[in-house]
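[09:14] KT: can someone run the structure on this one? pasting the chain below
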Amino acid sequence: MSQYELEYVKRTAQTPLTCRIVSMENSSPHWHYEYEAFLVLRGSVSVHCEADTQRLSDGDIYLFNPSEIHSINQPEPNNLCLVLQFHPNIYSDIYDTKFRFELNTCKSMPLESIDIFRQIMAQIGILLHEKPNGYPFYVRARLFDFIGAMFKYLKYHVQQGWEQPIDIEDFDKIKRYIKQRFAEDISQTQMCRDLGLSRATLHRQLKKAGASSYKVLINYYRIEHAKSMLRTTTTAIPYIASESGFASESSFYRVFKELTSVSPNQYRESPQTKPSSLGIQGYSSFSESEAISLLREMCVG
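[09:31] RB: done, structure tokens below
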């Protein structure tokens, strides 16, 4: 299975979770075995999960359940987000089943419960930043508070057999095909024929990944290739546009701006994007002191 599809979440020996502050630029469609709670500290992001698309802004939280294919992009630059990931086996000594929870603050939720989730996530972020004596115990305690709040305030149901998403093999075939041929003029008919998939199957898999059409996913990889060339070479932009599969410079500029919120020139001149070891996430630089200040504000509601 492609590593660009399954995200391997690394947890430390001290805490049963991964928590990080990021300025989110984008992520390719991917999945993992962990729950992922996504809190926007500043700005906005668009999240795509299965057939659901939401725009999150300051204070919003979205929970991705294990094995849900999802992706994220920025509708505007300079966001700040807190990401919390933990495996469902953390409650396996209490429940021998797994649960799918609905946490999306863009939908109707009591303000009291939203504040509780925000405060717990912010407190975990502060604890892992400051690392006071005994912090692993405090982090575990707050994580259990978070899980308890999930059962108390959220809608949920028992989930059977989610070791991997449905039809992940088809989805993986689509992604590998596009990653290998994004610079070509790929037609939907040719893609379906080469992959042995019907148009209905292709549409269903793309919809799960939050892509409205095969062109959307192709453009994602074209722009990722262009961004790499902009960062690592001095190649002229018209050549980069051609090498990335765009028929014209104008279409390259239009799609690049749509997906990154900046022009190719602005992207090349901006601070370096933090590298990702798995090739899934795209992060931008940010002010750590500002992020911690925002977390402290949320700690007290």
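[09:33] KT: thanks! The CA atoms of residues 92 and 226 lie 44 Å apart.
[09:34] RB: yep, looked fine to me
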